[in-house]
Design brief:
single chain; about 200 residues; alpha/beta; Rossmann fold; six-stranded parallel β-sheet; 8 helices
């Protein structure tokens, strides 16, 4: 799959790091097996522009059955991951990322998409029209973040080696989707290329 940037990344771009939390990196039912493998690339992106980094955190329901519609069944299925059963610190950012806050900022959400409740876009749109995206999972919360950003008109740069999923097959399929079907709005590139283009 070909990849690359269409043009340099502007200095005012924001790095949106999606849900790189301890509960996806450490030993929980939601552990993403190769999150640790991509963490060094995520750390490099954060270190390059810590003050231009926003971390999202997926906040579980308080208890099983909480939430509207299918979310109630979802949280019954994932009872072990509700806040009443999950150690509080598992919701935190992965340990290597915690040192970037501040100046990096943290945005908490209760759905896959960070855009759903309307709070994030007014904050980010004052800063940028370009997002560099990393995080977990490529085919779930990252996908929701990307599609919402497309609808809102952001230029999107996916850091392909700073994304992870618990499914290799759907990770690869998602990268093909971003590159082939959203090529007008989504660019895919490795962290090294992104850092070289982001001055």
């Amino acid at each position: 799959m070909a990849s690359g940037l269409n043009e340099p990344i502007p200095a005012h771009a924001v790095h949106l790091c999606v849900d790189m939390q301890r509960m996806f990196v450490e030993d929980t039912p939601w552990k993403t097996p190769w999150a640790e493998r991509v963490l060094p690339a995520v750390v490099r992106l954060c270190g390059h522009r810590a003050s231009r980094t926003w971390f999202t955190r997926f906040i579980p329901a308080q208890k099983p059955g909480e939430g509207a519609g299918t979310w109630a069944a979802y949280w019954r299925r994932w009872e072990a991951m509700t806040l009443q059963n999950l150690p509080e610190q598992q919701v935190d950012l992965a340990r290597p990322l915690q040192a970037f806050v501040p100046p990096a900022q943290v945005f908490d959400k209760r759905t896959y998409s960070p855009w759903f409740d309307g709070r994030l876009h007014p904050l980010l749109s004052r800063q940028t029209d370009c997002l560099v995206i990393s995080g977990a999972e490529t085919d779930v919360c990252v996908l929701a973040a990307v599609l919402g950003a497309v609808d809102l008109g952001y230029r999107i740069v996916m850091a392909t080696d700073a994304l992870c999923s618990s499914s290799d097959e759907s990770h690869d399929a998602s990268l093909r989707l971003y590159h082939q079907r959203y090529a007008q709005q989504v660019e895919t590139a490795a962290t090294e290329e992104i850092l070289a283009a982001w001055r």
